[in-house]
Specification:
The chain is α+β, with helices and mostly antiparallel strands. The chain has 2 domains: about 1-85 and about 270-295, Immunoglobulin-like; about 100-270, C8orf32 fold (Roll), CATH 3.10.620.30. The chain is built from 6 helices and 14 strands. It has helices spanning about 100-105, 130-135, 145-160, 175-180, 185-200, 265-270; strands at about 1-25, 35-45, 50-55, 60-65, 70-85, 165, 185, 205-210, 230-235, 240-245, 250, 255-265, 270-275, 280-295. The strands form 3 sheets. Strands 1, 2, 3, 4, 5, 13 and 14 form a 7-stranded antiparallel β-sheet that branches. A 5-stranded antiparallel β-sheet has the order 11-10-9-8-12. A two-stranded parallel sheet has the order 6-7. A hairpin with a 6-residue loop joins strand 9 (about 230-235) and strand 10 (about 240-245). Helix 2 (about 130-135) crosses helix 5. It is globular. The chain starts with a strand and ends with a strand.
Length: about 300
């Protein structure tokens, strides 16, 4: 599949804001099976300085500095992505056991943003809750179970038990609250699944990106109605590598998903964060459009 993606974030301030600095993580990373071209970032008003930063995680980070007073800031990211299907059916592929993957990850010699060892432990949002989330997850995560099949069963169990509810949580709430309420959004489901996987010693990462959404039959596609999405990447050993699982939709990640960044949890790969000087209140609107351009013929 080929997609044209447009993502616009607009910030409004109730009073003048002076000297604002923002970190953006909107440009997609290099990812197996995914090719990105024609990337463009438009910022209005134009920043005094814009530069690329290194990230400790798999993310392309851009730093904006604005020195002139503003009451509004618009940031638009555009790119084209080609996403190819996996070379084989990962759900049916032989996979090592959970115990084997845990041992491999703990002994992995490399340390870095793509290393499984970097995603084994608690992180700022995805804390470990072995007494609740861990116990719940173990009904599917037996040490001797093949890791791929066990993770799919966990994903399906989460999808069956939890209800999507955009009003149930807020971005700064810990995953344990969504877990206890059995309600939340893609970010919550991803964090809960990560906590369950890490509780048994599996390397699990948070992926931010986009999901192609299909309109109801007979209805037109709504431009700008798409949003950023989140899912889990699970390291399944050196042969299978990182495999994407989308608990919100109970599906493996395929050509409908576009990877932007990967980190330990949302705080590592938030599309926008930063600081500004001033006492103004802030509101933000976000719109995204994932437009299919071409259906690839097998």
């Amino acid at each position: 599949m080929i997609y044209n993606v447009t993502h616009t974030t607009t910030l409004f301030y109730s009073n003048l804001v002076r000297l604002a600095r923002f970190n953006l993580r909107l440009r997609p990373i290099d990812w197996p099976g995914q090719t990105v071209s024609d990337y463009r970032l438009d910022v209005s008003p134009a920043p005094a300085d814009i530069r690329q930063k290194s990230s400790p995680w798999l993310a392309n980070e851009t730093r904006l500095t604005l020195r002139d007073p503003i009451t509004r800031l618009a940031i638009t990211s555009r790119f084209r992505a080609r996403v190819q299907p996996p070379a084989f059916d990962r759900a049916q592929a032989p996979s090592p056991s959970i115990a084997q993957v845990r041992a491999l990850a703990m002994g992995w010699p490399a340390v870095g943003p793509g290393s499984p060892a970097s995603y084994l432990f608690a992180s700022p949002i995805a804390e470990l809750w072995p007494g609740e989330i861990g116990v719940w997850g173990r009904q599917w995560l037996n040490d001797e179970a093949p890791v791929m099949q066990a993770a799919i069963a966990l994903m399906q169990g989460l999808h069956d038990e939890f209800a999507f509810d955009a009003s149930a949580t807020s971005p700064d709430q810990p995953p344990i609250e969504a877990f206890r309420a059995r309600r939340g959004v893609c970010q919550d489901f991803t964090h809960v699944m990560i906590c369950a996987l890490r509780a048994v010693g599996l390397p699990a990462a948070y992926v931010s990106g986009y999901l192609r959404t299909l309109p109801p039959p007979g209805m037109p596609r709504l431009v700008g109605a798409d949003m950023m999405h989140a899912w889990v990447a699970l390291w399944c050993g050196p042969d299978l590598g990182w495999v994407g699982l989308d608990p919100t939709n109970a599906t493996l990640v395929t050509t409908d998903h576009i990877v932007v960044a990967m980190g330990r949890d949302y705080s590592d790969v938030a599309p926008l964060d930063g600081v500004f000087h001033g006492g103004a209140g802030q509101t933000m609107t976000v719109s995204a459009d994932v437009e299919p351009v071409e259906e690839e013929v097998a």
